[in-house]
Specification:
Layout lengths: L12 E7 L10 H18 L2 E7 L3 E7 L10 H21 L5 H4 L3 E2 L2 H8 L4 E2 L7 E5 L2 H17 L14 H7 L3 H9 L15
Antiparallel strand pairs: 1-3, 1-6, 2-3, 4-5
Helix pairs in contact: 1-2
């Protein structure tokens, strides 16, 4: 299993939470969930950070990201968040407006209030995300990092969306289960497509 090293005298991992506008459950729709995952993977490849864990819930997402500060001194969590949210929002709006989409999906879109939102939403007609980059904080201890991985993976179970975290499609829990040698997870991975995000699982350094 891949291991990550937390820098002793620098920022460790970044825990980011981003909520949808007015808690609209855009990600109940599998097309929107996949779009977000694809843009997360695109940003990972573009900027060079690692995704330690993630989950896409109906109305919010949690990300646990890490990168080597010495190699990427100009990378910030705000830059990453705006890249993922901006690109995913544009694609999600197009998806929800598609003529083949169900009427119930089209009804999820909310018009932006131009006078208030124009400086922040770059003249976008519809809102997908709450204003701002999202809520984030730095994690600089192995104990807190392990805690957050568990918290992220437990979200769908707590919400009643699945009975096992590794059965939830839009989460890194399946990656951790496979790395741990879980036979049932391996069988599951052959039956259901795994999300497109490349995960670097975290285990505490011995």
């Amino acid at each position: 299993m891949a291991r990550t090293h937390l820098p002793k005298y620098n920022v460790g991992a970044h825990f980011l939470t981003a909520k949808t506008f007015q808690n609209i459950p855009f990600f109940h729709n599998s097309g929107c969930a996949r779009i977000f995952c694809e843009e997360l993977e695109t940003a990972r490849q573009t900027y060079g950070f690692h995704v330690l864990a993630f989950v896409v819930m109906p109305d919010h997402v949690h990300l646990l990201l890490w990168w080597e500060v010495d190699k990427l001194p100009n990378l910030t969590i705000s830059k990453v968040a705006w890249a993922i949210k901006g690109r995913s929002a544009k694609r999600m709006v197009a998806h929800l407006k598609n003529e083949t989409a169900a009427a119930s999906l089209k009804g999820l879109l909310r018009p932006a209030h131009w006078s208030l939102d124009r400086p922040h939403y770059r003249n976008w007609q519809y809102k997908i995300w709450q204003r701002g980059a999202g809520y984030d904080f730095n994690i600089c201890s192995a104990e807190k990092l392990k805690e957050k991985v568990g918290y992220i993976h437990a979200n769908p179970v707590r919400a009643g969306l699945t009975s096992r975290s590794e059965d939830y499609l839009w989460s890194s829990a399946i990656n951790y289960a496979i790395c741990a040698g879980d036979g049932s997870a391996l069988a599951h991975s052959h039956d259901v497509p795994i999300h497109p995000v490349t995960i670097m699982p975290y285990t505490e350094i011995a």
